[in-house]
Amino acid sequence: MASLMEMKEIFRSADAVCFDVDSTVIREEGIDELAKFCGVGDAVAEMTRRAMGGTVTFKAALTARLGLIRPSYEQVQKLISDNPPQLTPGIRELVSRLHQRGVQVFLVSGGFQSIVEHVALQLNIPTANVFANRLKFYFNGEYAGFDETQPTAESGGKGKVITHLKEQFQFKKVVMIGDGATDMEACPPGDCFIGFGGNVIRKQVKEKAKWYITHFDELLKELEER
């Protein structure tokens, strides 16, 4: 197991950094915002808490939550235009600095492609670097389920994405940053996990993560030291 000092060195010399999105890159949980928008906020928020705590499988929680929300294509688009995701303070500067250093930045999310791509656009991250869940709709725009073949649709999916990235790009050091159990589980194959508690603190992650931060400035400072 790497020490904190070794983890900091991995971060400073990483080829790629993968960020979780909900409650990490953005302040909200996208699925909870969508649920509120569709009038089933409280029931879905409770399911999210259980999923993030690692007590149910991610796919089971996602299926149950979306079964309650049943968002139409129009509702998803209206949510993005009326209530766009709010970036977490410091993330824009951190991503920009990583890009300047030639580090590839990826968004790896259990949230939804359409929302995450909107976030990627604001951070100058190519949509090809987005791995998220895809909602499916019928021709009339009604909810038709989600693409269960996406790796991010199941527990352990973020680790599968990192394995894929290492194989495709020959990355030697990949860092995963996030607030939840699914992010922590991605290391290994990720080389370093940084727990993030700037928007919400998950007890399990805070207790188990060797490197835990509450503001992205802490990571910017690490980069400036070299």
Automatic annotation (TrEMBL):
SUPFAM superfamilies: HAD-like. Pathway: Amino-acid biosynthesis; L-serine biosynthesis; L-serine from 3-phospho-D-glycerate: step 3/3. Its cofactor is Mg(2+). It is an enzyme of class 3 (hydrolase). It catalyses: O-phospho-D-serine + H2O = D-serine + phosphate; O-phospho-L-serine + H2O = L-serine + phosphate. Keywords: Amino-acid biosynthesis, Hydrolase, Magnesium, Metal-binding, Serine biosynthesis. GO terms for biological process: L-serine biosynthetic process. Signal peptide: none annotated. It holds the Pfam family Hydrolase. Catalyzes the last irreversible step in the biosynthesis of L-serine from carbohydrates, the dephosphorylation of O-phospho-L-serine to L-serine. L-serine can then be used in protein synthesis, to produce other amino acids, in nucleotide metabolism or in glutathione synthesis, or can be racemized to D-serine, a neuromodulator. May also act on O-phospho-D-serine. This is Phosphoserine phosphatase.
